[in-house]
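Section: Multi-chain targets

For targets with more than one molecule, the full set of components is provided together so that the structure can be written out for the assembly as a whole rather than chain by chain. Components appear in the order listed by the source. The example entry contains three components.
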Amino acid sequence: MHLAYPAVLSVLLFCTGLYGVLARRNAILVLMSVELMLNAVNLNLVAFDVWLSRAARDALHSGQALTLFTIAIAAAEIGIGLAIVLAVYRARGTSDIDKLRDTAETRPGPGDDGTEPAAPAMAEKTEAAA
Amino acid sequence: MTLAASSHGFLSPTGVEVAFLLVGIVTLGAAVITVTTKQLVHAALWLVVALGGLAVEYLLLTAEFIAWVQVLIYVGSVVVLLLFGLMLTRAPIGRSPDADSGNRWAALTVAVAAAAALVWVVVDAFRTTWIDLDGAAGGADGGSTAVTGASLFQSWVLPFEALSVLLLAALVGAIVLSRKAAAEGERPQGSTNKAPSDKGKAPSDKDTAPSGKDQAASGKEGVR
Amino acid sequence: MTTTTLAVLVPLLPFLGAAAGLLLGRTAPGFVRPLAVLPTLLSTVFAVLVALRQGGGQAIDAATELTPTGSVPVELALHLDGFAVLVAVLVGVVASCVQIYSTGYLRDDPRYPSYAALISLFTSAMLLVVYSGDLIVLLVGWEIMGICSYFLVGHYWETPEARAASLKAFLVTKLGDVPFLFGLFALAADAGSFRITTVLGAVASGGLDHPTLIALLLLAGVAGKSAQFPLHTWLPDAMAGPTPVSALIHAATMVAAGVYFIARLLPVFTASAAALVVLAVMAAVTMTGSALAALAQDDIKRVLAYSTIGQLGYMTGALAVGDRGAAVFHLLSHGAFKALLFLAAGVIIHAAGTNSLAAMSRMRDLRSRVPDAYWTMTVALLALAAIPPFAGFFSKEAVLGVAEHAAAGEGAAVPASAGWIILVSGLVTALLTATYATRLWLLAFRGHGAEAPDHGRQPVVMNAVLWVLAVPSLAFGLTMGLLPDWFDGHDLTPTLTTSVLGTGLALVGGLVTYGAWRHTTALAARVPLGAVAAHPEADAGVVEAEAIASHAPAYGDVAYAPDPADPGRLLLGPLHRHAAVGFHLDAAYTALFVRPVRAAAELVRFLDREVVETYVRGAGTAPRWLGTAVRRAQTGNVQTYLSVLLAGSAVLAAVAVLVATRGA
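Its structure, encoded as tokens over all components, is:
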């Protein structure tokens, strides 16, 4: 079998997951998309492992071992992730990612306009003092 | 290797390749529906299809142990866990029009660009590489449980143990997160939750406690 | 105490008095007067002691280097020769008189503590200049005097004249100080030291590479400080300060510093014939011009100010012909009688309630109101006019004598042209000096008209000081036999030719003025004129400040009064109008310097406002717009951030692959 088939499938699955991570609003759907991306990587690992072990370049089965590790870590990740999502949901009443905007500056309101005329006035004052 | 590669062209696919291609199309379709459907529960169910399809692909790649682990963990526990999560966060059943956020087009652009770049690179790099699935080593299947187990406990035993510590840490972390959230929910009564009455609140608090346990259980399952 | 210790104490005591006066002025008002007078008196006593011990013998030198200061060392050095000790005595005596006089003159002034402290500091700075043997230390005293004159001239800062005059005094003297500083550096670079003895040694051995340049640079500073043409314009305006300050500045300290400086470094100047000729021309223009201007002034203090400029011209003239003995002789006698003139003028202004001669000439019996001032001022004016046997006669004849020597070609290394210039202009100025002295006396004390207002007796201290100063004005000339021992040894006795010429010219000037006055005085009764600031109970300072402030509104100008009864008007004829305003030099400076500077300032202001500020605003606005744009991207939506991040990494990956494949 050509290696290109699993590799291209892996790429497409990965990018599908990527789209999901970027486009989905619900945090749990984002976690699902993350799972898709992880699986895409797993497929890649398995495909390359098969290729390399058949070509007798790799006797350790590192790809399959790493796949197992990835699966375990993905399980842990989904547990922690869901716990966080639930905690957020309990605190905020929502699990929509685009409503969690605490890192943003508060919306520029009248204060922003207020400083604009103040600045030239102050410049005038310093000039008069000089 | 080069000799083998030269004798296998793209236009003369083998049976395995055709099967891989068909299952791959199904998998990809399911994945696309997962990230685009407007019904949240359906998304989880389509994820099952996609992950199952991947398990089949593993089988086709002769990695049978991985395939079964995939079915066990992903289809068996992760998706169940996700469904629990959906329920606990009161995800609407049925079509929800706002399942996608506003930057869908930006996301699509990024995803397509990334896909184009990666596909181009991968195809450019591996278009002539051939995997000899028929097995030069005769019956000794590379992905069988025996071979995998041997390699795992001979060559990979140290990372394996380290991974078990990681899983323990994840387990403890999940418990701490859940407990802290519970304690928080008890003290400022209803100040954070939008529950209309105390009656509505009490079950939700109760729900969280089992979910934490459930996650812990799933973590353990992952180790096994 | 050793002579050196005494000499150190002489400048130090007034300085400590000034510091203490400034510190205690508000908290302990009772100590202010003792703190002002006693240190100055004590330092005068010490100066006399130093002079006696030095005795005109070998110069005493002492130096200590506090810290290494680079290539050319700066040392705290004393250089006590006959000139230094005698000038220090003069400074001490005049400063003491001024301090004592001020206690009466400004007895009710709220700013007296700071005033007295500044006078002490001024005195201390002048004494430092006199005693210092190091040019940089001398410069320190020189500049302290500059800043003190700024504060003291502006003592009545409520009046715009005083504010303008203090600024003008400061700026004009600084204008001279900049080339002065360069000159000092050039001198030190050539001589390799700031020590005066070393410098003079280098000059004697011909070690100066650029004597003319150095001398001319130093001359600029001297012209600023000693009010020589063309930097003399600050001195008449400085009359806006209190009269004791004028006395101090004119008689002993500030203006004397420049002459004294040249006297100290005379070999540097005689090393360049060109510098001597320039000095001679400067002195000649200064003398004759200022004497003409003095004849046209209406303000009694401005007459005296222009006369100071003229007498300083005599001193620089003596220096231009290479005789510092005569110059310092005239400096000493002039210090005595000019201090007396100013202090007496203060008394007269207080008594008359005006500083205008035109107004005084319409007062009867002013002289009987101020008998002490009348007699002492008469003595001082006779000394000024160089009538024998008063002090001014001997010193002025000494100057004329050396000029005659130089003109005859007897002076070594002095061009005969310089001698002729000084001799002729000195004789002309002698005539003019007698003329304006007579005019001043006639107008002030021989007035007709209404009875002079009764402002009460002046404080005893003010009158006592006048008599103290009258003694040297009268008799200082008799010391001419002793002085050559203290100076360079040149004979200072007047020669017959110049004596007859000078005295004759002075008498002619006085008689002509008297005749003119007899002719014009009939007019005085017909033209009523005069404004009197009557404050019978206030102290003299208040009266003077009001008189100065009201002169321009009453007469149309600070210096000028439209009085047809003025004999000066008759004598000068059409020249009077120009002489009254100082030959339009201020107007010329305004046109030449003030206007261009103002225009340049306007231009700079325009450039700053309209051009530079536009860039500044642009530099502020562009980042603000950019910030607003960037802030729009800062939505807080993690998915947006991640999208941008991944888009960027995709682009980077594509670029990397492209570059790698191109390279392969």
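Chain C has a mean pLDDT of 82.
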